[in-house]
Amino acid sequence: MAKKSETLRQREQAQRDLLELKKMQMGQIDPASLPKEEPIVPKTLEEKKQNFLYYHKYKVIVAVAVAAVLSFLIYSGVTATKYDAKTAIFCYRFLTTDQASAIGDYLENYYPDMNENGKVDVQAVDCSFDPDQSSPDHTNTMLTKIQAMLVAESDTLLYLLDEKTLAYMNTISDNLELFEAKNTVELGHSFYEATGLKAEEGEKLYLCLRTVGGTVLEQNKKVKPQLAAAEKVLEQVRAENEDTVAASGHRGHALLSSRSLGTVKRLVGDVDLLVFLVNDNNSSWDDKAKADYDKVHRSAVEALEAEAAQRGVGLDIKTKYQSLTLNRVCGDPEWDWIKAAIKKLGVSSLAEYQQNYLKKNDGCNTAPVIFVLNKEVRSFTYSASKEYPDFDECSSIGKSDGKFHRFTIEHELLHQFGAEDFYYPADVKALAEEHLDQSIMLNGFKIDPVTEYIIGWNGRLSLAADEFLKATAHHTNESIEAALDAEWGDALKN
Partners of 124 in the beta sheet? Predict the structure, then answer.
């Protein structure tokens, strides 16, 4: 007998199943009498392992999802930036993310470490919009955002406003002036220079401290330390920016052109001074020589810190000594041996070395470099200039009359922060002697008012500084460069 094909068997089985179904529907067969399919349940440990995901897949999926969410929340909480303060930016113009961040960075120079985590972070919250270009939805969103910050943000006490938004903010409350004139500082050249923002025609920007008394924030315990810090910040910014009128007539002045250029900008805050004691083919350092130099060096550092304190400027200089050996003769102003030193440090530039150092030392604001030679040699400094704003900055200190001198160390270090010599041209020297009494940039021992402005110790120009700058305004970078060439030759250009 021929074997039935598989297809035929399946067809016959389907017909039998259909016949039983019809009989069940007509009541001829009791459904309970039909054989029941036994559920397959794993019995052994091995079977349970093999079928675990099949029987528990939904529980596993939920558990994995919950674990992922918890991990994300924990990671976000640990790694999120803990801001010391916030500032709200509300202007009638669009700002880029980088511009808003630059404003936050600018205020970090003045805020203390409120949360004591070793660094200062200020969050700049941008609520700005252009009324002529923003959609109604975007405009309403920004207005709601800035009003919510006014009501509820205890760490947002400083606001950056323009003339129109300042006027608008003072109309929000009928019974209270939110931003009093005494708590408003017009931001000037110093602000624009530090942040890189460009003032639009006719625009005035203000840093404003909001009123706390008589508002819902008055009873908030978190506000008190924030208010004390914000008041100090505002006063420091006021001092820095009151050069708006005084210095505006001197913008572009050749003797101010190195201000805030290069990697070393302002002599304020925590400064790590990277000092390399250089051994070369005809000079070296022993313990006595190191001790002799350190004594003079410390006197220079302490003098600078004391002078800064007299002006209400916080300055903490820490000296980091290292030894550096070069197989050559080092000495007078000559870029070749500086290049050899940079190569020995394993970097392509001193700027790279400084940036690497600052990344590893978060609390440090800046890290000037000084090379010291234990021999009779002329001291000098390479600093950034208007023509070469990215030039590697460093000083070289040598002995004079058989010893190191405190004022030489101070003088050369100040050059890295933009201070200019007043030795030349001849009329500059004469005018400095007349207006800038005993300037350390002219064989003296005092930080004169022009130098203190350049290095970031004072935002105001004194009457004497103003008169000196007016009298020397005819000089250009080229005329000063010519006098420099006559004094030094081409040494500083190599």
Answer: 87
